[in-house]
Design goal:
Blueprint (H helix, E strand, L loop, with lengths): L16 H4 L5 H8 L6 E4 L6 H10 L4 E6 L2 H10 L7 E5 L5 H7 L5 E7 L4 H4 L26 H7 L2 H12 L4 H14 L5 H11 L15 H11 L2 H11 L4 E11 L2 H16 L3 E3 L5 E2 L2 H6 L7 E7 L1
Parallel strand pairs: 1-2, 1-4, 2-3, 4-5
Antiparallel strand pairs: 5-8, 6-8, 7-8
Bound molecules: S-adenosylmethionine.
Length: 314
């Protein structure tokens, strides 16, 4: 069963949201990355730079961090947050599955640690114009990289009923995938489906009466939105590609830490890490994933579904 994070609603957009953002599983990431003073680290999902800031503080004045994000707006925010570490950071607007190319361009063979904190940030979720939010109406976009070609609008308005149902089932484990896909295809005969509100209303109408929300924990369209987001951004493909080579760029003793938010991602990480351990490439630092403490989940709903896995290169 996929566990899906409910949409996190935080305060309204702030002038500088990066400064307010609290990274998920921060203490655990710092502990298990086992930071080395003066080390070289990669944050493959820079976001608002929360984990990156803590890593930079942990590795001292001689440490270096390479930060990647496929969202140039996230890079801009992180740059502001990390301005005080001038000279210690390299920012790359790129997908982490291109890390091999990024490191080659920088003439770097290996690093002391790599962190991936998968999914989207609250900064992306909370901006209605990005089209990730069920509760705040916006265009059906959902691209993490605003320069990417395909939007959620394109998928919803051009794929066949069968293809939409597949996406909802495979990436959202939505048990009403067939009904929802049929309602989507019927609705778009009238006019294209353009906004997040229109889509969530269609999903609600597709739900059998008895399944309509009565104080439900998550919005009934959550699985549909998450599935579409995964499809638009080809999230699982990016993770799969990265997992094939990520460890190759670690120094012996270097660590790879991955935080995932649903079981589709976590399963890929778990299986790959176990296989690499069997092949003698890595040591499993955690036999089981680490979850956020009750204290953290009470302050940050998104942390409820976060889980961390870590391996060390042999
Ligand atoms: C959960 S946020 C990371 C938050 C960050 N750890 C912090 O403390 O602020 C995930 C970020 O990763 C980026 N991202 C997701 N998939 C990516 C990929 N394949 N390549 C590069 N960046 C990605 C998203 O754009 C988003 O900014």
């Amino acid at each position: 069963m996929i566990q899906i994070a409910d949409e996190k609603r935080t305060e309204p957009m702030n002038e500088n949201p990066a400064e307010k953002h609290i990274p998920v599983l921060l203490n655990e990431v710092l502990e298990y990355l086992d930071l080395k003073e003066g080390g070289l680290y990669v944050d493959g999902t820079l976001g608002m730079g929360g984990h990156a800031q803590a890593i930079l503080e942990g590795i001292g004045d001689n440490g270096q961090l390479i930060g990647l994000d496929r969202d140039d707006r996230a890079i801009a925010l992180a740059k502001r947050r990390l301005a005080k570490f001038d000279g210690q950071c390299t920012f790359c607007h790129d997908n982490f599955y291109h890390l091999n190319r990024v490191l080659q361009d920088l003439d770097i063979d290996s690093v002391d640690g790599i962190l991936l904190d998968l999914g989207i940030s609250s900064f992306q979720m909370d901006d209605p114009d990005r089209g990730f939010s069920i509760r705040n109406d916006g265009p059906l976009d959902m691209r993490m990289n605003p320069q990417a070609q395909i939007t959620a609008f394109d998928l919803i308005n051009s794929l066949s009923e069968k293809e939409i149902a597949h996406i909802l089932r495979d990436y959202g484990e939505e048990r009403f995938s067939g009904r929802i896909a049929r309602h989507i295809v019927n609705a778009r005969v009238e006019k294209p489906i353009e906004t997040t509100n229109e889509l969530s209303q269609i999903v609600l109408r597709a739900m059998p009466f008895s399944k309509k929300p009565k104080g439900e924990r998550i919005h009934p369209a959550t699985r549909t939105f998450q599935a579409l987001r995964i499809a638009v951004n080809r999230e699982l493909e990016a993770l799969e590609q990265f997992l094939q080579f990520g460890v190759d760029f670690l120094k012996p003793g270097g660590r790879l830490a991955i935080i995932s938010f649903h079981s589709l991602e976590d399963r890929k990480v778990k299986i790959t890490f176990r296989q690499m351990a069997k092949d003698g490439q890595v040591k499993l630092i955690l036999k089981k994933p680490v979850f956020a403490s009750d204290e953290e989940t009470s302050q940050n709903k998104r942390a409820r579904s976060a889980r961390l896995r870590v391996v060390e290169k042999i």
